[in-house]
Every structure is written in structure tokens, then in C-alpha cells.
From TrEMBL:
Its main location: cytoplasm. Its EC number is 1.4.3.16. It comes from Brumimicrobium oceani. Keywords: FAD, Flavoprotein, Oxidoreductase, Pyridine nucleotide biosynthesis. Residues 6-382 form the FAD-dependent oxidoreductase 2 FAD-binding domain. The keyword Secreted does not apply. Catalyzes the oxidation of L-aspartate to iminoaspartate. PANTHER family: L-ASPARTATE OXIDASE (PTHR42716), L-ASPARTATE OXIDASE, CHLOROPLASTIC (PTHR42716:SF2). Pathway: Cofactor biosynthesis; NAD(+) biosynthesis; iminoaspartate from L-aspartate (oxidase route): step 1/1. Its cofactor is FAD. Belongs to the FAD-dependent oxidoreductase 2 family. NadB subfamily. It comes from the Bacteria. This is L-aspartate oxidase.
Length: 504
């Protein structure tokens, strides 16, 4: 296996693949490795349904409206400069994807634009209800045109390495197929490792979404920011015995679906006058409060009043998945629950995607660019990845002459083993349950229970030194939970709307 590269890109979702393609188009001579710890197609990117938000015409929409919607959703915690930059460059990102072969849905020779919660205009470009998979497929096809890009599948980065100047300069990689640990030397590194929904009991995220890049960067001393801002998606399909839940896209609410309680009441208006079109944090919180007040978890998504033809045309993938779970969305309400969905914070980066460690960039869901603040506006994340790709590529291109190999400092990594992948399953389940309980309740008691358990687990681990990957993964989880707790001014809490205000 080749072990020296100009650029090492860790992650093969929209962020990692776009980065590799954009870079190689700019500097043909660069040797690039893309590392994916699972199958190439196992990414959160592939699960994205709704689409990509963009103002494609200032005749029917405006940058200002998209900027305001993003700032409002973020609870005014987003960075205005970053928001303006991303919104005003969104159309360029879309055209970039089109140049790489993506064909967004059209109607009468124009884009077919979806409406999603928190957006004041229909501005979501999509490919039916499988936008992420359509984009990912085209990016994978593009790789075939570039023989300077090597894809290392089933290879997990287990440690990042610095050189004597304190610059990122390589990584240890565990190769699942060869059961071997290998060192990769690289002149520059881009982290594109995605989110961390798998830390929670219920999530819409892929099994790969375990926050690795954030722990790896933090271990080097990189600045991590806004980690507590985890977005819960209100409409995950609640299926008994499952923890990775199927997402029912925001676009279904945009098409008119209602959220009802056990009595069939549309209760959201008690909490926010926008009802089903309120932002995700508001709806998730309202659902939790409704469950708490009513004492049962019967909350449903109701599409029975929407035309069957429209549903079949717009949401074939969602209908099929609900059917597999025993529900027909066109004729009966679907049980739903909020589930951990998106990590708004992450590795702090500037407008060029640079982290606080020289030669270490971060892009996509693992990065904290400042676009999302406390809460991401729907369909702004694929957009963020594609817009930032250009900046990172330009920055690396401008610095390409300065890129040289410097030997890494770190001693030999212990040879790792994957003999006992489930060794910490019981402990992981306890951790997930306690973390979820705390994020939902925000109660000091739940926080104390969580801290007590983390301390206990750390004490236990202080006596264990195996070379099992499962132990490393469990240590990473504990570190992430501690980071989440360090800055835990949790998401917005909504209170019922004043009855009097509702009357007018
Ligand atoms: C169900 C669902 C629906 C969504 N819908 C939308 C939507 O409609 N619009 C929108 O804008 N956003 C949506 N999102 C969010 C969006 O899909 C993600 O934020 C985005 O795809 C993240 O892309 P990424 O490239 O950063 O990470 P990912 O696509 O998750 O890719 C991460 C990559 O990192 C690799 N990796 C991780 N750790 C390691 C390691 N240690 N070593 C090696 N490789 C590693 C993984 O193998 C993977 O290749 C949705 C998310 C989900 C889960």
C-alpha cells in the first residue's frame, strides 16, 4: 500500500469526495488519499433526503431572506459573515455539483424547489427524496476520472500525527481487511469525518457517525467549539427495538403533513405559531413536552389529507421505508420521535477551513464554521460542505509550493486488534441512554448521573490496557461526552404560547 501522499482526506461523504475532486481539478499533480472507515457508500451523505438550500434566482427569492432564515434558526448564534458567504455562493456550489453530473429535479425547465421548516421560501433543490445518494453516486463516478486519487476503504484513522514543527503530518490507520496498522505520511490533512449522532440512544445517523475526527483533532490540541449544539430531528420513524431510526424528511411537513398526538390533535400551535413549519429544535422540544405532559409517547405524522399522487411522486423512498416498517403513510398516521440528527459544532475552522493546527483542515459536519450557531437550518449542511470545498481547495492550491514532507514525531503505534468489537456494548448503551436523557430533560439530576457514570467508567479504564479497537472507541466516546458537557447551554426550550396571543 502506498503510504506517502500530498493530501490525506479522512472521510468519503460529500465533504471528503468533493474536496478531493475540487483539489485534483485545480492541481492535477497532487497525490491524494481518501480514507473511509467503512464501505465507501456508508456515509450520512447518502441518507440525506430533503436536499440542498440555495437561492438560484433573485427574482423569486432573495439572499437576504435565506440569510435571515439561517440566522433565525441558529437562535442568532450563527456567524453573519459566514452565513452571508455561504448563502451568496450557494448557486456556485449547485453549479459545481451539476458540472460533476448531479441532475436536480426540474419542473417546466426550472428547478423544482421544496419548502422545509424554518425557510420562508421554497428553495430546496432535490433529487426526489434521495438527494444525498444521487449526489454521492455522481461524486463516486467522478473519482474514476482521476487516477491521482487513491481510495482506502475499510481503513480507520486511529491517531493523527504531528511533525517537530507542530504541523499535522500523518496518521495511523487500522486496515480492517488486512487487520494491520499502517502509518501514512502526508503534507497536509483534511478531516471530513462527519457527525456524532451515534453517541445517542436514538439517531438518524449512519453507524460511522461517531465523532472520530473531533476526538482525533482535539487530541492534537485543536480548538473544538459549539459541540453542545446537537440538533434533534423531530420526525424519525419510531420502530420498536431500533436505535438507528429512519428519517421522515422535513419536506413531508413542507408538503402539508400534520403532527398529531394520541387524541388526533395538532398540538404544535400551543408551542409555536408556525406549527409544523417551525424549526426542528422548536418542534422536537414541543414533542418532548407534549409526551411529558400527556404521559404517553404517542406522537404521529399524519399525511392522510395529502393527495396520494403527490406523496407517491415526491416521497417514494419514504413511503417504501415506512411500508417496510409496517405502516402505510398514505392511509395511516406514522409513529414518530425526535432523534439525534446533526452536530452543529465541531473542529473550529476559519473561512479557508483551517483548524488551529497548521496543515490540518476540517470540512463538512465535523467542522464548526459558524454557519449553524445553536441550530442548523434544514438543508444547509450539504450546502456548507460544497461551498467550503472551494475555499479549502483554493487555500491548499495557494500553499502547494510550501507543502513538504516532515517526519512525524510520534513513537510507533501499538498494533491494534479487532477481535472483540462488542466488548464495551453494555457500557456504551448505558452512556447513550444517560446522555440522551440529559439532552432531553436538561435536568441537573440527569447531568449529575451522567458525570458520575463517566467518572466511574474512566476509573475502570485506568486499569485496562488492551490493544482492542473497541477499547479505543469507548475511550473516544467518554472524551466526546466530556467535551459535550464542557459547554452545555443546551438547545432552546419552548414554552406554550400565551392563549391570548393565539386568539388574534
Ligand atoms: C437521515 C439524514 C438526512 C439528512 N438530510 C439532509 C438534507 O436533506 N439536507 C442536508 O443539507 N443535510 C442533510 N443531512 C445532513 C447531511 O447529510 C450531513 O451533514 C452531511 O452529509 C455530512 O457530510 P460529511 O461529508 O461531512 O460526512 P459523512 O457523509 O457522514 O461522511 C463521513 C465520512 O467519514 C468517514 N470516517 C469517519 N470517521 C473516520 C475515521 N476514524 N477514519 C476514517 N474514516 C472515517 C466515514 O467512513 C465517512 O466516509 C441529513 C442527515 C441524515 C442522517
Amino acid at each position: 500500500m502506498k503510504t506517502n501522499f500530498d493530501v490525506l482526506i479522512i472521510g468519503a461523504g460529500i465533504a471528503g469526495l468533493s474536496q478531493a475532486i475540487a483539489l485534483t481539478e485545480k492541481v492535477v499533480s497532487l497525490s491524494i488519499a481518501i480514507v473511509s472507515k467503512s464501505a465507501l457508500k456508508e456515509t450520512n451523505t447518502r441518507y440525506a433526503q430533503g436536499g440542498i438550500a440555495a437561492v438560484m434566482s433573485t427574482q423569486s427569492d432573495s439572499y437576504l431572506a435565506h440569510i435571515e432564515d439561517t440566522l433565525n434558526a441558529s437562535q442568532h448564534k450563527a456567524d453573519k459573515e459566514v452565513v452571508s458567504f455561504v448563502v451568496e455562493n450557494a448557486h456556485k456550489g449547485i453549479h459545481q455539483l451539476e458540472n460533476w453530473g448531479v441532475r436536480f429535479d426540474q419542473v417546466q425547465n426550472d428547478y423544482h424547489l421544496g419548502l422545509e421548516g424554518g425557510h420562508s421560501q421554497a428553495r430546496i433543490l432535490h433529487v426526489k427524496d434521495q438527494t444525498g445518494a444521487a449526489v454521492h453516486d455522481e461524486l463516486i463516478k467522478q473519482l474514476e476520472h482521476h487516477n491521482t486519487i487513491s481510495v482506502l476503504e475499510y481503513c480507520e484513522v486511529v491517531e493523527l500525527l504531528l511533525n517537530a514543527n507542530g504541523e499535522a503530518a500523518g496518521a495511523w490507520i487500522y486496515n480492517y481487511a488486512e487487520k494491520a496498522t499502517t502509518k501514512i505520511n502526508s503534507k497536509t490533512i483534511v478531516l471530513a469525518t462527519g457527525g456524532m449522532g451515534q453517541l445517542f440512544q436514538y439517531t438518524t445517523n449512519s453507524p460511522i457517525a461517531t465523532g472520530d475526527g473531533i476526538v482525533l483533532a482535539s487530541t492534537l490540541g485543536a480548538k473544538i467549539a459549539n459541540l453542545h449544539s446537537i440538533q434533534f430531528h423531530p420526525t424519525a420513524f419510531r420502530e420498536l427495538g431500533k436505535s438507528k431510526l429512519f428519517l421522515i424528511s422535513e419536506a413531508v411537513r413542507g408538503a402539508g403533513a400534520h403532527i398529531i398526538n394520541e387524541k388526533g390533535e395538532r398540538f404544535l400551535f400551543k408551542y409555536d405559531l408556525r406549527g409544523e413549519l417551525a424549526t426542528r429544535d422548536v418542534i422536537s422540544s414541543a414533542i418532548y413536552q407534549e409526551i411529558k405532559t400527556s404521559g404517553n409517547d404517542g406522537v404521529y405524522l399524519d399525511c392522510r389529507h395529502i393527495s396520494k399522487e403527490l406523496l407517491a411522486h415526491e416521497f417514494p423512498y419514504i413511503i417504501e421505508n415506512c411500508k417496510e416498517g409496517g405502516y402505510d403513510l398514505t392511509i395511516q398516521p406514522i409513529p414518530i420521535t425526535p432523534a439525534a440528527h446533526y452536530s452543529c459544532g465541531g473542529i473550529q475552522v476559519n473561512m479557508q477551513g483551517e483548524s488551529s493546527i497548521p496543515n490540518l483542515y476540517a470540512i463538512g459536519e465535523c467542522a464548526n464554521t459558524g454557519l449553524h450557531g445553536n441550530n442548523r437550518l434544514a438543508s444547509n449542511s450539504l450546502l456548507e460542505a460544497i461551498v467550503f470545498t472551494r475555499n479549502v481547495a483554493n487555500h491548499i492550491q495557494n500553499n502547494v509550493a510550501n507543502l513538504v514532507y516532515h517526519p512525524t514525531e510520534t513513537a510507533k503505534q501499538t498494533e491494534l486488534s479487532n477481535e472483540e468489537p462488542d466488548f464495551f456494548k453494555a457500557e456504551t448503551d448505558v452512556l447513550k441512554a444517560l446522555l440522551t436523557a440529559y439532552f432531553i430533560s436538561k435536568s441537573e439530576n440527569d447531568k449529575a448521573d451522567l458525570i458520575e457514570m463517566v467518572t466511574y467508567f474512566k476509573e475502570q479504564l485506568s486499569n485496562i490496557y488492551s490493544n482492542e479497537l473497541s477499547e479505543l472507541h469507548f475511550r473516544w466516546k467518554l472524551e466526546l461526552v466530556e467535551m459535550l458537557l464542557q459547554n452545555d447551554s443546551l438547545n432552546v426550550e419552548v414554552s406554550p404560547v400565551d392563549e391570548h396571543k393565539l386568539q388574534w
